[in-house]
């Protein structure tokens, strides 16, 4: 993870613009499931049930809603194949793949955060034992 040091603070206007950009991104990717769903589909195209099995904890109702939202915003495509029964396959678009770096950074930060929490918990246990 890149750590920024000794760089001058950005101007007030630049901060405001950056904040607006972040808020726009969060508006489109809001909720706890959208990035997880995009990440799941980046690995390979999947059917509804495969996605639900991989992204544990999401209900069918919420998954259906989130997939519709992602499709409306151009992050995934829903391909319907006229088989018996009908096959529906979801896959990411090129636009969703532009999030690869962002997801990678979030993953790295999440791992770093998990380690920090583990260290904090160890210290609390050590203090309790003393």
The main pleated sheet reads as:
2 strands, antiparallel
Helix content: 55-70%
Q: Mean of the pLDDT scores?
A: 89
Order of helices and strands: HHHHEEHH
Structure classification: mainly alpha
CATH topology of the largest domain: Arc Repressor Mutant, subunit A
- Radius of gyration, CA atoms, in whole angstroms: 20 Å
Please tally the β strands and state the result: 2
Terminus-to-terminus distance:
35 Å
InterPro entries: HTH_HxlR, WH-like_DNA-bd_sf, WH_DNA-bd_sf
Pfam family, one: HxlR
GO molecular function: DNA binding
Domain HTH hxlR-type: 15-118
Secondary structure blueprint with pairings:
Layout: H1 12-28, H2 34-43, H3 48-54, H4 60-72, E1 76-81, E2 87-92, H5 94-97, H6 100-129
Antiparallel strand pairs: 1-2
Domain HTH hxlR-type: 15-118
GO molecular function, one term: DNA binding
Keywords: DNA-binding, Transcription, Transcription regulation
Question: How does this structure look, described?
Answer:
It holds the Pfam family HxlR. This is HxlR family transcriptional regulator. Keywords: DNA-binding, Transcription, Transcription regulation. By secondary structure, the chain is mainly alpha-helical. It has two domains: 12-98, Arc Repressor Mutant, subunit A (Orthogonal Bundle), CATH 1.10.10; 99-130. The chain is built from six helices and two strands; from the N terminus they run ααααββαα. It has helices spanning 12-28, 34-43, 48-54, 60-72, 94-97, 100-129, and strands spanning 76-81, 87-92. Strands 1-2 form a two-stranded antiparallel sheet.
């Amino acid at each position: 993870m890149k750590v920024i040091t000794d760089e001058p603070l950005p101007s007030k206007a630049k901060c405001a613009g950056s904040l607006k950009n972040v808020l726009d991104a969060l508006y489109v990717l809001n909720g706890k499931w959208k990035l997880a769903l995009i990440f799941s589909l980046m690995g390979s195209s999947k059917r509804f049930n495969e996605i639900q099995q991989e992204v544990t904890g999401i209900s069918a109702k919420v998954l259906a809603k989130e997939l519709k939202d992602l499709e409306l915003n151009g992050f995934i495509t829903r391909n319907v194949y006229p088989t018996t029964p009908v096959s529906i396959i979801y896959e990411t678009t090129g636009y969703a793949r532009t999030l690869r770096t962002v997801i990678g950074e979030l993953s790295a930060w999440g791992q770093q955060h998990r380690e920090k929490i583990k260290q904090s918990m160890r210290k609390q246990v050590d203090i309790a034992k003393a």
